[in-house]
Write a structure and sequence with these properties.
Elements (H helix, E strand, L loop, with lengths): L1 E5 L6 H14 L4 E5 L6 H4 L15 H8 L19 H4 L2 E3 L2 E5 L13 H16 L3 E5 L9 H4 L4 E6 L3 H16 L5 E8 L2 H10 L4 E7 L2 H8 L10 H12 L1
Parallel strand pairs: 1-5, 1-6, 2-4, 2-5, 6-7, 7-8
Antiparallel strand pairs: 3-4
Length: 251
C-alpha cells in the first residue's frame, strides 16, 4: 500500500500517521515512513530516539550537489532533472523495528514549486518511493499535497485526510480534495479525530457526506499527554490503537 496522510495543522495528522505506521510494523509489514511536513515531527511520534538530530534531505547540500550538479539555493541554470535517488531510502533512513523513516524537509528558496535542485531531488525521490519501492509507504504530508505530482498520484492507493469537528478543518478537507483532483488523485478517504460525542460524529457525517469515512478516533487525554511528554502515542493505552487496526483492515 502507498498511503498519503494530509490535513490541517493541529488536527492530529501526525499522531494518526504514527499509529498507522507502528500498527503496520507490529503486523510484520515493512514500512517506509516519509515525513513530508516540515512543521511536524513524525520521528518523535514514532518513538525514534534523538529525532531532533535527523537532518532533512532538503538540507543535505553536498548530497544534493552531487546528485543534481547544482548548488542548493540556486534557481534556474543547468542541473539534472532525473537525479539518481534509488539508493537514498536505504542509505539515508533511520530505522526502528520494521520501519525506515526519511525526513524530506522543505525548500526554503523560491517556494515549493520552484525549479531548483532541492525541489527536483525531493520530487524524484517521492516518485521513486511511490512507484518503485515494495514496502508499505506512509507519507505524512503538509496541509496540501506539495510533494505529489501527476506521475506519483496514479500510484497512491489512498489519500487520507485527517479532520476534526470544526468548520476550518472541513474547509481544508475540501481544499485538499480539489488539489488532488487537479493531479487526478481521486482515491480519498477521511479519518475523523478528536471525536467527543455522537454530535461530533454526526457533524462530520453531515458536512463530509460525499467522502469515504474510514473511521472515528475519540478525543483522548492520554494521546495529548503522550505528545506533551515526547512519548509515542502508540506506547500509551488508547482505544485509538484498535480503531486504527480496523481501518487498516478496511484499507
Amino acid at each position: 500500500m502507498k498511503l498519503a496522510v494530509s490535513g490541517k495543522g493541529g488536527v492530529g495528522k501526525t499522531t494518526f500517521a504514527s499509529l498507522l505506521i507502528r500498527t503496520l510494523s507490529d503486523m510484520g509489514k515493512k514500512v517506509l515512513a516519509i515525513d513530508a511536513d516540515p512543521d511536524a515531527n513524525l520521528a518523535s511520534a514514532l518513538g525514534i530516539p534523538d529525532s531532533d538530530k535527523i537532518t532533512p534531505i532538503a538540507e543535505m547540500k553536498d548530497m544534493i550537489f552531487e546528485r543534481t550538479g547544482a548548488q542548493p539555493g540556486t534557481v534556474g541554470g543547468f542541473f539534472r532533472l532525473n537525479p539518481k535517488v534509488d539508493d537514498l531510502p536505504d542509505s539515508l533512513s533511520v530505522r526502528k523495528d520494521n520501519i525506515k523513516l526519511m525526513r524530506l524537509g522543505s525548500v526554503k528558496k523560491g517556494g515549493g514549486g520552484c525549479l531548483c535542485p532541492e525541489s527536483t531531488l525531493l520530487k524524484s525521490l517521492v516518485m521513486h518511493i511511490v512507484l518503485a519501492r515494495d514496502e508499505v509507504v506512509v507519507m505524512d504530508m503538509e496541509a496540501g499535497i506539495e510533494h505529489l505530482g501527476r506521475a506519483t498520484a496514479s500510484a497512491v492507493d489512498k489519500l487520507i485526510v485527517v479532520v476534526e469537528p470544526g468548520r476550518r478543518s472541513i474547509d481544508t478537507a475540501e481544499h485538499i480534495r480539489q488539489l488532488a483532483k487537479e493531479i487526478r488523485l481521486e482515491r480519498i478517504a477521511v479519518v475523523a479525530n478528536k471525536i467527543r460525542s455522537p454530535k461530533d460524529e454526526a457533524f462530520i457525517r453531515q458536512h463530509l457526506s460525499d467522502f469515504e469515512i474510514l473511521g472515528f478516533l475519540p478525543y483522548g487525554n492520554e494521546l495529548i499527554e503522550a505528545d506533551l511528554n515526547g512519548q509515542s502515542p502508540y506506547e500509551v493505552a488508547s482505544e485509538a490503537k484498535q480503531i486504527v487496526k480496523e481501518m487498516i483492515a478496511k484499507l
